[in-house]
From TrEMBL:
GO terms for biological process: proteolysis involved in protein catabolic process. GO terms for cellular component: fungal-type vacuole lumen. Residues 258-400 form the Peptidase M20 dimerisation domain. CDD domains: M20_yscS. PROSITE patterns: ARGE_DAPE_CPG2_1, ARGE_DAPE_CPG2_2. Residues 1-16 form the signal peptide. This is Peptidase M20 dimerisation domain-containing protein. One of its GO terms (molecular function) is metal ion binding.
């Protein structure tokens, strides 16, 4: 059973003080934003934790493992073939990487059952001795490609995995071979201390997350659902979230408890052709341009409601920050009951692009194509609009906004409108031409993970324990605690395939640099190496804590 400390003292002297308080889930602050109690394993293996965080030998060995993993170019592309169509394509990318994992983690391969799903997905099962719900840890093996033109801009070649003593550089160092390796390293450490899980631990590593996860995570989810049934997992933890971030003088850890939805809207316009010497007032390009202008002129509504995890994160900032502007603080705390305060908070958050899209559906005109020749009227123009759907909204609402605007433009230019997705003629075709609209790859907003339960309390408590007592005891503690609050990510993860397995889905990767700082997906992706060691320490502790829970 995990132990919750009833008050905050250094973990190396706490055994005398800890109370067996799992049934007493009292929190040490007011309920708007509690500072969660520390949660530690029954036995804290301080020498192992010290080795993970501070031993130079361990650090070098760990860096060598991650560096080796980065040297496999496990890139996936939007144009990558299916596994069935071109097995060789995938085998060349992933067989060497699988061999590497097997050679690098002999204890894992000796103690866990390893299965390959849809050829290259990896599922590891560390069978528990009890029938407690298993825990699922996720990561992905693939990485985003490098654009040739940017190769010269890298400080170190992207697939060399250079470790300079402080940082580890390369594609996948932050997204997310660090997480994949970190999980395996923590399990090796647990095997070394003869830990035998009561609760099964399952690892699911997809191989095409960066292009949607249809081949990898989707197949793994099917296997796990078939094997364990719906709602069968204790919790799922995947990449994502923010750990740690300083805001308004506070240090926050923000495990993601939901994800925005998304949808691509494809719009095609076909009009009669002709010679460009006798053009109409508006060619199809002109009409499509007007539609683009209209779409961009009308923004989506913003929301600041308790449904959005971000709401609670800001309650934390307002509750605990000493530096925050007093008026903003008041407005955030009153935003649930006072409309004007709510509007002012939304206006404040909308000033910054990074926070604006946490509370609003985004729209990005990403592709436009049309026209072929300088002396011929364009007969066809196509447009792709990408939306990330706000937590309070739906794919339907998002589509409906664009469709309303499309119908208005169609009426103005006397054009037909055909909805391909619904197979519906929305406006009759005319001699002037027709629009066609298709909603591609719709993904609803992820169900919001509850935070008023033991699952959350234990996650938050272990985060505090690992950061305040293990990683940075000199920096954090009772006087300067880490505030754990829920967050969302504006992008999507492979968890989209796993919703049926549990309502407790967390997107959380330990570390001290967030996605923008690590330059994930761009030139010079890198991590401060201590971030990687924190992944190992976190899972080493979290797996023991969760194992002991009922
Ligand atoms: Zn990723």
């Amino acid at each position: 059973m995990a132990l919750l400390a009833s008050f905050c003292v250094g973990w190396w002297v706490t055994n005398a003080f800890v109370t067996d308080a799992i049934t007493d889930l009292t929190r040490s602050s007011d309920s708007t934003c509690p500072i969660y109690d520390y949660v530690r394993p029954e036995t804290v293996h301080s020498t192992i934790l010290d080795k993970i965080m501070r031993s130079l030998v361990f650090r070098e060995q760990s860096a060598a493992k991650l560096s080796g993993a980065i040297q496999f170019e496990t890139t996936t592309f939007d144009t990558s073939p299916s596994v069935e169509d071109n097995p060789k394509y995938w085998a060349e990318k992933f067989q060497p990487f699988h061999d590497y994992l097997e050679n690098t983690f002999p204890l894992v391969y000796a103690h866990l059952k390893v299965e390959k799903v849809h050829s290259w997905g990896l599922v590891y099962t560390w069978q528990g001795t009890s029938d407690k719900k298993p825990l699922l840890l996720m990561a992905h093996q693939d990485v985003v490609p490098i654009q040739e033109a940017t190769l010269k801009d890298w400080t170190h070649p992207p697939f060399d995995g250079v470790y300079d003593g402080e940082f580890l550089w390369g594609r996948g160092s932050a997204d997310c071979k660090n997480l994949l390796l970190g999980i395996l390293e923590s399990i090796e450490e647990l095997i070394k201390i003869d830990f035998t899980p009561q609760r099964s631990i399952v690892l699911g590593f997809g191989f095409d997350e960066e292009v949607g996860g249809r081949r990898g995570a989707s197949s793994i989810a099917d296997l796990l659902t078939e094997r364990y049934g719906p709602d069968s997992f204790y919790a799922i933890i995947d990449e994502g979230g923010i750990s740690l971030i300083e805001q308004e003088g506070l240090t926050l850890a923000l495990p993601g408890t939901s994800e925005k939805g998304s949808v691509n809207i494809n719009i095609d316009l076909t009009t009669p052709g002709g010679h460009s010497s006798v053009p109409p007032d508006h060619t199809s390009i002109g009409i499509m341009s007007e539609l683009v202008y209209e779409l961009e002129s009308k923004k989506f509504e913003s929301f600041f409601t308790p449904k959005n995890p971000i709401y609670w994160g800001f309650q934390c900032i307002a509750t605990h920050s000493k530096g925050i502007n007093p008026r903003l603080k008041r407005d955030i705390l009153n935003a649930g009951t006072d409309r004007r305060a709510n509007r002012r908070v939304r206006e404040h958050l909308s000033q910054d692009k990074l926070t604006r899209y946490l509370i609003q559906t985004s729209q990005a005109i990403d592709i436009i194509e049309g026209g072929a020749k300088s002396n011929a009227l364009p007969e066809h123009v196509s447009l792709v609009v990408n939306h990330r759907v706000a937590i309070e909204s739906t794919v339907d609402e998002t589509v409906s906004k664009d469709l309303t605007q499309l119908l208005a433009v169609a009426a103005k230019f006397d054009l037909g409108v055909y909805d391909i997705t619904q197979a519906r003629q929305l406006r009759n075709d005319t001699a002037s031409g027709r629009f066609e609209i298709l909603y591609d790859d719709p993904l609803e907003v992820a169900p919001v993970t509850p935070i008023n339960d033991e699952h959350w309390l234990n996650l938050a408590g272990v985060i505090r324990h690992v950061y305040e007592e293990v990683a940075y005891p000199e920096k954090y503690g009772a006087e300067n605690p880490i505030v754990v609050a829920p967050g969302i990510s504006t992008g999507n993860t492979d968890t989209r395939w796993y919703w049926a397995l549990t309502e407790h889905v967390y997107r959380y990767r330990p570390g001290i640099a967030h996605t923008l700082q690590t330059k994930a997906h761009s030139v010079d992706e890198h991590i401060p190496f201590e971030s990687h060691l924190q992944i190992i320490a976190f899972y080493f502790e979290y797996l023991q804590v969760v194992d002991a829970l009922a």
